[in-house]
Amino acid sequence: MTDYYEILGVPRDASPEQIKKAYRKLAREHHPDVAGEDPGAEERFKDVSRAYDVLGNPDKRRSYDLGGDGSSGGGAGAGFGFQDIFETFFGAAGAQAQRGPIPRARRGQDALVRLDLELSDVTFGVHREVPVDTAVVCPTCSGTCCRPGTSPRTCEVCHGRGTVQRVARSFLGQVMTTQPCAACHGFGTVIPEPCTDCSGEGRVRSRRTLSVDVPAGVDTGTRIKLTGQGEVGPAGGPAGDVYLEVRERKHETFVRRGDDLHATLEVPMTAAALGTVLSLDTLDGEQEVDLRPGTQPDQVVTLKGLGVGHLHVGGRGDLHVHVEVAVPTALDDEQAELLRRLATLRGEERPDARLASSHSGVFGKLRDKLSGR
Fold first, then answer.
1. Do 201 and 160 fall into the same domain?
2. pLDDT the model gives residue 285
3. How far apart are CA 208 and CA 44, in angstroms?
4. What tens digit of pLDDT does each residue of 96-112 get?
5. Which of 305, 115, 356 is nearest to 220 (CA)?
6. HSE on the CB side for 210, CA within 13 Å?
7. What is the pLDDT of residues 279-335, one digit of tens each?
8. Residue 240, SS3 per DSSP
9. How many CB atoms are closer than 10 A to CB 144?
10. Is residue 290 within 8 Å of residue 348, measured between CB atoms?
11. Are 224 and 142 found together in one domain?
12. Which residue range is the domain that position 43 belongs to?
């Protein structure tokens, strides 16, 4: 018995999609019109077609797998049919051509526009006027593509069908094929007098301004969709969309992490030791930062609700102020004497050096950061 699986080069458990793909590939290779002078091409093409006629039909394939010849069961079914032949030889474009004329008006393309924002913009939200260069409906022809006073004319070649039929030679005889009309490009109509302002496109390039309310909480990479604000399609077709992609500029003072802000506050050694109240210029104006006596380096003071606004849910993140203690590097004699007296009073003339716990101090914090703790 002929091994149809071997002819198509597929395993016995091949899916219907694998069988169909293998058939189309082999049919194109061995079709007599493609193979040219190869004397065995026609016979191989018949073998491939017979194999697909059986394996491409569930009932025939089931009968064949049980030892039959596959000639019974199911009729044509999902097996070898005109649609498969048509798509194999003339492609998907040819199959689409059977559906008639294509519309001249088509949807316009989407546009991507970069939107640069400051930290204050993403913190509180902002209203922006964004200029864009895009295609708009031609004001002269209103998207008809025709000079005013004229209109499209039915194609005389395809008579409005958008397709023409041609006869192709095959080993099966003459095969009628359907192809897009070259005269009207498949539209079914021609433009006898195109609009001179848009050159028959039905649209022209123009610069316009889009108004957008940017919500608080957006970040670099966030895209804001403006539906129907993109370029108008050919022949006045529906407009595409505009996507505004946010890029947040770096701030000189604050660093953003999520919806929280971080800043470093440098204070004198004496202020850290004695405690003080300092004024900090934030995005919300002047805010007081209360440093307790004995404030240590890298200590963090958190100001609640002074961070970036949460996107779509309301509320804001926090502002974390990291304290950096500035140790004086140049002391005059009087200042040096005062520090020596302080060291004497505190018994620190000759301080004992001791290693801090591995879970505290600068190295402990660094290790925790690197380990993700």
1. yes
2. 94
3. 62
4. 444 678 999 999 999 99
5. 115
6. 24
7. 999 999 999 999 999 999 989 999 999 999 999 888 999 999 999 999 888 888 898
8. coil
9. 22
10. no
11. yes
12. 4-80
